[in-house]
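User: My collaborator sent over this chain with a note saying "see what the structure looks like." That's all I know about it. Can you take a look?
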Amino acid sequence: MRIVILGGTGLIGKAFTNEMIRAHHELVIVTRSPESMRSQTGVAYARWNGRNAEGWAEHVDGADAIVNLAGENIGGRRWTAQQKKRILESRLSAGAAVVAAVKQAVQKPRIVFQVSGVGYYGILNPAPCDEQAAPGDDFLARVSQAWEESTREVESMGVRRVIGRTGAVLSLEGGALPRMLLPFRLLTGGPLGSGKQWLSWIHIKDQVRAMRFLLESETASGVYNLTSPEPVTNAVFGRCIGKVLRRPYWIPAPGFALRLVLGEMSTLVLDGQQVIPQRLLDE
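Assistant: Without extra context I'll predict from the sequence alone. Here is the result:
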């Protein structure tokens, strides 16, 4: 397959690129800084201005798939009004660029893979969420809904679309896990808030292999939750970290203190969803 990737330089993008290279697929990574990328066999780079399809749309013509991973990091900085706008607009711009590139292509791709997040289900749903669960109404839920909607138009052009709602991706190379480990390494690990909030997680290897499975499938379409079949509470996960690192699990971080320090972004650690990857289990 020839696959065009937006967001190929992030945590998931890098791991996915390596997985697909090993599987002998041909990749085009769309990035703002192609000159800074190291050369890899089977990988080409195209420049992107972060706003539209200018400069890379020609790579979509005749490609088999587009993978859209692009978007501002939700945990990168405090959620000011400006940062929340940046989070949303970065996703909408990338989605609109994908649609524009598909429109321009004479030979259109067979599939568009649109990443999203389990934040889609909101923070007030206590029940286990499979792909049929209703969306929430908090900031991340609204962002996820708009993100998914941003590429819907490709379906009217005859392009199959897969949406991957991703949980917390665990990797020692970046993302949330190194930050989760730090308090334990400093002997200050403990529950965050009540510790009862759910953590729907997925290992980076399972993330990219699930993506590969869905791309290589001839029938996959619609929404798939990309999480472990066994979500855990924050307390269970913390005790597991303590056991593995041989560090104590004893100093709680009160919810009010985390809200004071992190503001609205504290929802990333104080709230969660119990998400089940039912369609992956079925298929």
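A starting point for your reply to your collaborator: The longest strand covers residues 111-117.
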